[in-house]
């Protein structure tokens, strides 16, 4: 993960600005936790205000992009958290588990250091409804291979509450499926650069060329006109909440 994000991380903070609506859902999921460990913290997105947050991030490039005033950060991997048992009220991880080399161990580590709750924003690989795979079919196999199924979280964390995270049409965070109502954004190499998915599949430029042609001809709009009327959409993102006590 650290090697990949040492490359992707350049300009990452400008491409991946936290969306306040998603941030509010994550914050609510943390409940009354006062101390929080943010695993795979990146540049500091979604770290809740008003709580004692400690960040853990493996990539030096990502750490360098953390704004002044963000939570103190420790460099290290999710699979070997350098903290004692029950050090925090809660542990959180936002769109990061697909980069972990050992997902089961990472979840076990979150459970070890958190007294009360674990909160993860992830993606359900069983979800089918994203139009982006029409142009980049490699994303399907990538999601299936990298994202753990929802049952995996209950297996390793115990009973969980799973909530859909609806993506606003004007989402400020440029994660992979954020631009569902703004297809022209995917023509911008800079936008694609902000998502690890586009770094890990073949045929990215070819897919962008097909999308550009369909936008110009009106074919995309004809197939997906209903999306243009929506304020938000379920694109497969899920918030997993586990009470650990």
Automatic annotation (TrEMBL):
Mind telling me which InterPro entries this protein's record contains? Methyltransf_11, SAM-dependent_MTases_sf
Top-level division of the source organism's lineage: Bacteria
One Pfam family matching this protein? Methyltransf_11
Entry's Gene Ontology molecular function annotations: S-adenosylmethionine-dependent methyltransferase activity
Gene3D superfamilies tied to this protein: Vaccinia Virus protein VP39
Residues in Methyltransferase type domain copies = 38-120
**Entries under PANTHER family matching the protein:** 2-METHOXY-6-POLYPRENYL-1,4-BENZOQUINOL METHYLASE, MITOCHONDRIAL, METHYLTRANSFERASE
Name the chain's protein.
Putative merR-family transcriptional regulator
Organism this protein belongs to: Erythrobacter litoralis (strain HTCC2594)
